[in-house]
Amino acid sequence: MEKIDKFHHQITKFLKLEFEREKNTIEENVEDLSHHISQLVNEAQKIKNQQGPNVQTALLNEYADKKAELKQLEDENKNYQKKKKLQQDKKDQQDALKATINTELAEVQHSLNTKMASLNGQVCGSSSFQPPRIELKPTGYNFETINDQGTGTSFKGLIIFDQACLDLTHLPFFVHDSLLFSNIEIDRRNRIIEMYAQETKQIFISIDSIEVLSEKAQEIIRENTVLTLERGGKELFGRSWNEQATK
Fold this sequence. Notes:
Layout: H1 2-124, E1 132-137, E2 140-145, H2 151-168, E3 173-176, H3 186-197, E4 202-205, H4 215-224
Parallel strand pairs: 3-4
Antiparallel strand pairs: 1-2
Helix pairs in contact: 1-2, 3-4
């Protein structure tokens, strides 16, 4: 029994020493781990304290950039929509202006052609002759007597056009040079003079010779003559500019 007790005592002592040694080892390991954990916690805190604001600032800057970019895109979209609306408004106004111009031109054209047809019948003595006609366009015009491009007919057309404008507008007067009359038939020339005589506005003409005209046309011209020019001291300035001086 004593031997057994002694053996047990030795075993207990041995185990106690082993337990004590193992305990010390574990405690040392725990202490090391605690120290390491503490270091890691401190490092993490440092990282948080040092880099946290930088990360936050970067995020804020990126947010601000994205917001500014979005605002710019929204403004560009608004400007684009506004530009499209302005372009459409401009097109609508241009279309309306073109329509108005075309309508006005058509009315003026109709009035002129109707008046010229009436005056042409008066000058020609019959409505069977083609009157001069004008076609008005936004960028130009066409003036002609259909199927007759002769010089006399063209000059007659110009005279009739001027007379129509005088009758239909506030035009106060017109001037016709003798060149216009030279290629027009005598009978029509007589009727043109008679047409002039019916006008209440002023008409100024120059004519080279009246002897070929009818008595009525000659009388109208004499009654309304303001100035007669001829050679022999009755030139406009008392002499002819193309005469050579006599020695």
